Amino acid sequence: MRLTDWQEKRFIQDVLGPFATTAATDAFDDAVIVDLADVLGVPGLPHLVYSVDQPSFVRHADTDIDPFRFYGRWVAGVTCNDIIAMGARCRGFSLSLAAPGDTEVEDVRSLAAGIGDVLRACGADYEGGNLDRGTLATVGVAWGIVPRHAVVRRSGARPGDRVMVTGEMGLGWLEYQVRRNGLEDQIYPGDRETFRRYKQMPVGAASAVAATAEAGLFTSGMDLSDGLVEYLHTLVSRSGVGCVIDASALPVSRATIRNLPLLWPVMPGSADILRRQPRLIAFDPGYDSPLLHGFTVRGEAVAEAKRMFREHGAELYEIGKVVREPVVLLADGERRIEVPQFWDDQLRQEETMAAWAKFLAAFG
Q: N or C: which terminus of the chain has fewer CB atoms within 10 Å of its end residue's CB?
């Protein structure tokens, strides 16, 4: 068998799981957890969490942003995102950089400056790393500290908990498709600045997440790098529960809904569905990463969690409820529609747009 014969997460769990303890199905989280109390023999010490990522070169929609500076922001944002998801406060970051010999020194400086932009937002230090000559590639390593009681894992949700997300959804997928298909000049004039600025600083609500985790209000959670659908099905696989999502509660910005018609020529088979239910754009395959996270919160703690987020200049949205039956359902008025498994996959052979259209067709 080859890599393309596997789904990404299944490959990690089934092939790598026997070698790496954190790749096993029941231990697969956003970051690796090191129990400092166990390692050092001192009771009560916090957990150290760390993550390694290898983000591809990504350009921002705003051509005024130096591409290497944004790449630096992207590398740091994607890597630190996993630390934030665990409820930790990011403390340090290192980079292994490979670059061709004819790379301009100023480009490397710009990349490092972009990393610094994100780390200042997270409260972390740029600690160094490694440099090699070769095809342009980066590997980021981020680490943080989280109190023992505050660590957020993908397991732990219980019936009655509320399903929450940390921001509005869907704009990333729409913005990507607009750029990919050269539709920038058709964006509603009043929304062009929103699209241009989106993800200029690719880091989520780090301080709000950490403070709410330290208050013990999250029962489980993860980042939404592969979209909302993967998160909801992770509740099933890791916590043995299900959820009912309220279609009317999905947080989608007005700018996103106003510009959805730009998708009609791109995905004609799904246009009618999105016309009827524009908030289904929230089920995109993860293009709002690394800005968003999903968490479960005890029902009685929802108001306090929302208050804490607002104190840190962020919003936490309630979109549904955890239930006993291990199935993911979308509540659309009186209807209950089962949400199929669909998310982006590094190893998947199927083209993303085709898979996305197939997913939406299930709601037809």
A: N
